[in-house]
């Protein structure tokens, strides 16, 4: 069999590819190949590409490989991929990507740029950045900040808002992009090798991952296809882990998006978000993950997307576990132990998320208090401590449409008539229903000073059979007035409440009745703002939930 023409052709092609790789690699590791000062050239290799750090720039080439899901054997395929990388990364990291350069032979040397000779390969030219600013390195050094998370959430939400939507398409391949059927295939394809590898098979089996994935994907099929029909399958990043995000001043840039596979790039925006959430949690930074989720939702209002978030996180964890396992290969024992921590970390996360799909019982938490009571600041702090989704009344009132960012300008008086307020609470109820049905504890940040509004949410909790608590944030009236006045004099805020609004609230509020007091936790906010970040301040809430056998 090894002497057949086909096998000789394959062997000859592989030898030619290896010779080409050696030629290109030798050229791009020489400083003289570049048209600018290159200094010491640093080489970074992945399974499908090589990046050369040369002076102020980085150059990325695609290897002439064929892994089935990607085929770069032909030169024109590598050129098209380089061009696509420049074009597709622009929404996420336009400041980094510059242009495509040709590698050609000039006499006895190879050079990058332009020339009369025919190109032998192509490279993506990028502006080089400080590797220490990668989110993965910042996280490892304990320097990834809340500001970095906010910047990433803002950038991702903005990119998703402006991304192209998947069309219905006449071609079957186009119609499948982002569909429930395709997601099921992708999840099970990532799971299958982990079920058979002796290093991972037992964990996968004991966690019941296949049964959970199949049942959850079947349950969500109609939801996923409806999301596609409603425009939430878009041209996403597709590979949004911590190694692909860099701090750039006060901003976050996301580079190296999926450019070689429409099926991996045209996905639901929630699946794109899930990758980064998963990676933060896999590295034991759950507070950052909670903050990222809530900041993204504040920017987009896409609470309906949460329905598939848990299975998307399982999927992303399985993919990273599989990549780590493939990288481990068949190493010596020391290397195996080093790699084992990576794939076991992702598998443990997938198992925990699958358990949450099956068992988690979410709570409904209603904030209650006058303007200036500190409930918004405090509720944000709680949403970073726990897996809680915060729904802000002020932000949702100022959201001009689905998936749009809130407008912080003051609203006219007509937005606060009884009819307008009742319609606004209708929208809040719909959002909260989506979050609770997705299995997430929901914290509603509103004044809830009217008994009728509280009653609507209590009815929702009974309908969905979810436990509910009222968090009564209170402070002396002088402190309330002081805070409202300070907010009015400060930067733009989602709240329009001023001194007149506070006075009206105090005179017109419906007090909590005896039945409501049975489900109320009192929280004194006449404390320094830093107290909201401490577990001790939230102890009354945590103790109450533990007493009622809840989870948070």
Proportion of residues in helical segments? 40-55%
Structural class by helix and strand composition: alpha/beta
Which overall shape is indicated by the principal axes computed on the Cα atoms? Answer: elongated
The figure for the number of domains is: 3
Describe the main β-sheet briefly.
Answer: 6 strands, antiparallel
Distance between the termini: 62 Å
CATH topology of the largest domain: Aminoglycoside 3'-phosphotransferase, Chain: A, domain 2
Q: Which class of the largest domain in CATH terms?
A: Alpha Beta
| Radius of gyration using CA atoms only | 27 Å
How would you state the average pLDDT, rounded?
A: 91
Q: How many strand elements?
A: 15
The CATH architecture category of the largest domain equals Alpha-Beta Complex
Quaternary structure: single chain
* Fraction in beta strands: 5-15%
Major sheet strand order: 1-2-3-6-4-5
- Determine the number of helices (DSSP H or I, runs of at least 4 residues): 21
Segments where pLDDT lies below 50 for 5+ residues? none
Task: Output the keywords.
single chain, 552 residues, alpha/beta, Aminoglycoside 3'-phosphotransferase, Chain: A, domain 2, Rossmann fold, 3 domains, 6-stranded antiparallel beta sheet, 5-stranded parallel beta sheet, 15 strands, 51% helix
């Amino acid at each position: 069999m090894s002497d057949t023409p086909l096998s000789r052709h394959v062997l000859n092609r592989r030898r030619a590819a290896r010779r080409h790789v050696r030629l290109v690699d030798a050229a791009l590791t020489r400083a003289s190949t570049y048209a600018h000062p290159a200094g010491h050239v640093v080489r970074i290799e992945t399974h499908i590409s090589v990046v050369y750090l040369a002076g102020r720039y980085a150059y990325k080439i695609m290897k002439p490989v064929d892994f089935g899901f990607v085929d770069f054997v032909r030169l024109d395929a590598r050129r098209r991929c380089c061009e696509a990388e420049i074009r597709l990364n622009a929404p996420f990291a336009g400041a980094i990507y510059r242009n495509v350069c040709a590698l050609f032979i000039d006499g006895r040397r190879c050079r990058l740029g332009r020339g009369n000779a025919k190109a032998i390969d192509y490279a993506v030219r990028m502006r080089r950045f400080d590797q220490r600013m990668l989110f993965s390195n910042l996280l490892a050094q304990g320097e990834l900040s809340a500001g970095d998370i906010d910047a990433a959430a803002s950038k991702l939400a903005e990119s998703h808002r402006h991304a192209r939507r998947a069309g219905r398409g006449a071609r079957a391949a186009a119609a499948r992009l982002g569909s429930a059927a395709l997601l099921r295939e992708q999840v099970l394809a990532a799971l299958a090798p982990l079920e058979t590898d002796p290093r991972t098979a037992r964990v996968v089996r004991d966690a019941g991952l296949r049964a959970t994935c199949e049942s959850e994907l079947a349950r969500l099929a109609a939801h996923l296809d409806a999301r596609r029909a409603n425009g939430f399958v878009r041209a996403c990043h597709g590979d949004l882990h911590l190694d692909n995000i860099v701090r750039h001043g006060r901003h976050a840039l996301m580079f190296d998006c999926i450019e070689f596979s429409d099926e991996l790039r045209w996905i639901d925006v929630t699946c794109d978000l899930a990758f980064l959430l998963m990676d933060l949690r896999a590295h034991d930074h759950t507070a950052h993950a909670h903050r990222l989720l809530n900041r993204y939702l504040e920017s987009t209002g896409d609470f309906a997307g949460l329905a598939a978030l848990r299975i998307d996180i399982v999927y992303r964890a399985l993919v990273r576990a599989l990549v780590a396992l493939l990288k481990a290969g068949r190493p010596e024992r020391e290397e195996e132990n080093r790699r084992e921590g990576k794939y076991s970390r992702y598998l443990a996360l997938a198992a925990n998320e699958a358990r949450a799909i099956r068992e988690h019982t979410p709570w409904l938490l209603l904030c209650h208090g006058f303007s200036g009571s500190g409930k918004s600041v405090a509720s944000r702090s709680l949403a970073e401590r726990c897996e809680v989704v915060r729904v802000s009344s002020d932000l949702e009132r100022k959201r001009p449409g689905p998936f749009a960012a809130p407008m912080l300008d003051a609203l006219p008086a007509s937005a606060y008539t009884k009819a307008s307020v009742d319609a606004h609470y209708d929208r809040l109820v719909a959002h909260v229903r989506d979050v609770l049905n997705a299995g997430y504890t929901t914290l509603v940040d509103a004044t809830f000073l009217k008994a009728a509004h509280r009653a609507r949410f209590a009815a929702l909790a009974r309908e969905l059979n979810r436990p509910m608590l009222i968090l009564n944030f209170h402070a002396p009236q002088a402190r309330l007035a002081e805070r409202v006045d300070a907010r009015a004099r400060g930067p733009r805020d989602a709240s329009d409440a001023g001194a007149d609004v506070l006075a009206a609230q105090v005179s017109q509020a419906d007090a909590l009745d005896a039945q409501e007091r049975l489900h109320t936790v009192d929280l004194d906010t006449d404390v320094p703002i830093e107290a909201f970040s401490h577990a001790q301040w939230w102890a009354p809430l945590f103790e109450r939930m533990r007493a009622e056998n809840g989870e948070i």
